[in-house]
Each structure stands twice: as C-alpha cells, then as structure tokens.
Design a protein that fits this description.
The protein is α/β, with parallel strands linked by helices and 302 residues long. The chain contains 14 helices and 5 strands. The chain has helices at residues 10-22, 41-45, 66-71, 97-105, 119-132, 139-149, 153-163, 171-177, 182-195, 198-211, 214-233, 238-245, 249-283, 288-301; strands at residues 2-6, 29-32, 55-60, 83-89, 107-110.
Length: 302
C-alpha cells in the first residue's frame, strides 16, 4: 500500500504519521528522501526484512532529490504487498511524471495550513481539542485564544497545553498565560503610533528590537498600513473588507476606527511615511530600526 501525504500543515501531518505509527505493529523506518541514493531503493521497497514480515517505510521530501524522484515512477509497481510506503511531500512539483503516477497509485491525503481567513476554523478546532484535553472552552474564550496565538495550529495547540493545567480559564488567564503572536505584538506597535503615544512607541520598539528582525517587522507594519488605506477608501464593513483582501477580520476591526478618524487624506500620509522608510532602507546605509522609528513617529504626528 502506498500513501502520499501532501501539504504544509506540519501539525496535521505529524499527527497523521503518529496515528499510522501507533497502528503499526512494529518499528517504523523513517527515511530522509533528500539524502536517499538510487541503489538503496530495492532494499526499501521490495519485501520484508530479516527482522519483520511487515514494514512501514516513511520517506520525507523525496521530491527534493531530483535524481531519485525522476526514476521513482519505475519502482511504484514493484512495491511489495508487505510494505506500507508513506511519502510525505509538503510541496512537490505536480508537473512531474512521478507525481502524476503517484496520484494514480497512492492513497492521497492533503493537509493544508490555516490562513488568515480560517479564524473560525481555528476557533472550532480549539474548542474540540480542548474537550479532548479535558477542558471546556466557550466560543468567546476560543476567539480570544486564537486572537492571541494567531491562526497557527501549533501555537493554538501549545497554548491549550498551558491552559490545561488551570482550574479555570478566563479571558484574563488567556492574556496572562498565552504569549502573544508576533503579528499581534506588531499590531499593538502600529496601534500605539496611530494613537500618538510616543513614549510607549519608543518603549515598545526597544523591546521588539531585541526579539524581532527589522525587515520582517517592517513588512508586517507596511501590510497594516496598506490595510488601513483600504479601509479608509471603502464604505464596506471591516468584516467584508477583510474577506475581500484575505486579511484577519479581528485586526481590521481594530483598525477601522483609525481609518474613519484619519480618512483617505490621513491614510495617504501613513502610506507616504512607510514608502519613504522603504526607500531609505533600500538605498541608504541608514539603520533599518531608525527608518522604522522615523516612519512610526510620522504616523504618530498625523
């Protein structure tokens, strides 16, 4: 039997592999496909070993190994009935002959990662997973949890593990126990600038400078500036705008009052501040953190 596991949702893939290993009576063979040599294929795919009649062979990232991947189709008909072969491919080239042949020969399972539009999916999953862990998580608590962690299944799971030791879960305990995701921290920075709170802006930047990469942080801030601009130019509710541009509805709902206050003219000034910072970071020797601070101070002064 051949199973092809696709997708970049590492949490669900790890859980599926754990389920397969637990259901197999024996020791699974886990192979790094990127380092596999063609001469090793016969031993892997053609029958039982000296120590076991049945085998579970898990090969990850074989498509990264161009030489073996190109010839792997020839071996698919030869996979022994005594072998359960599992191929894990997060992002294979679907144009290749091997992939197309695998689609026909294998049981294909795909695990897609959550995106910003999957807030509700994440909340529902958190409620179900909490129940498995022996907790009761209400809808509002699940919403707060996902707002805190972001739409990331690993972060939600680890947050639930932390909450599982508490006797009672409240909005306050989620704030106290669950670390904010980087997007939330950076949104708080942008919101601080929009409020014009210069003192807090300096303090927050000093903390983020120790934990974040400047160019990545600037990219996230620029994305929020763009979202602010879109909101200021639209007459739709923030939830509709979030759906239109694929943004997090919670973030846009918090940006909405600032978009109304600034209007199109103010939002254009925000974009101009970030455009200037972007040029400085690309064309000068200016420290990127200085460029970020200048942009945010200009936003604070609008």
């Amino acid at each position: 039997m051949i199973t092809l596991i696709l997708g970049e949702n590492s949490f669900e893939i790890d859980r599926e592999l754990a389920r397969m290993v637990a259901g197999f009576d024996g020791r699974a063979e886990k192979i790094d496909g990127s380092e596999l040599e063609l001469r090793q294929i016969p031993d892997l795919l053609m029958g039982a070993s000296l120590f076991a009649e049945k085998r579970l062979v898990i090969i990850k990232n074989l498509s990264d190994n161009k030489a073996v991947w190109a010839n792997f189709s020839d071996w698919l008909p030869r996979v022994s009935d005594d072998i359960q072969l599992v191929l894990v491919e997060p992002k294979p080239d679907k144009r290749t002959k091997t992939f197309k042949d695998l689609q026909k020969a294998a049981d294909v399972k795909e695990f897609k990662p959550w995106g910003e539009r999957d807030q509700r999916i994440a909340e529902d999953w958190a409620v179900k997973e909490a129940k498995v862990m022996g907790m009761t998580l209400s809808g509002p608590l699940a919403r707060k949890l996902v707002e805190r962690t972001g739409v990331d299944q690993w972060r939600v799971f680890h947050a639930l593990e932390k909450l599982a030791v508490l006797e009672e879960i409240t909005l306050e305990t989620i704030d106290d126990i669950v670390d904010p995701n980087p997007t939330e921290s950076i949104f708080q920075l942008f919101e601080t600038a929009l409020r014009g709170d210069v003192a807090k802006l300096h303090a927050t930047l000093q903390v983020l400078e120790l934990t974040e990469e400047a160019y990545q942080l600037f990219g996230l801030l620029s994305g929020q500036a763009f979202q602010l601009m879109v909101l200021s130019a639209s007459d739709k509710p923030s939830s509709d705008v979030a759906r239109d541009i694929g943004a997090h509805p919670f973030v846009l709902s918090k940006l909405s009052p600032y978009a109304k206050k600034l209007g199109r003219v103010g939002a254009k000034k925000v974009i101009a501040a970030f455009t200037e910072a972007d040029q400085d970071m690309k064309t000068s020797t200016l420290d990127p953190w200085v460029a970020i601070e200048r942009a945010l101070l200009k936003v604070a002064a609008i």
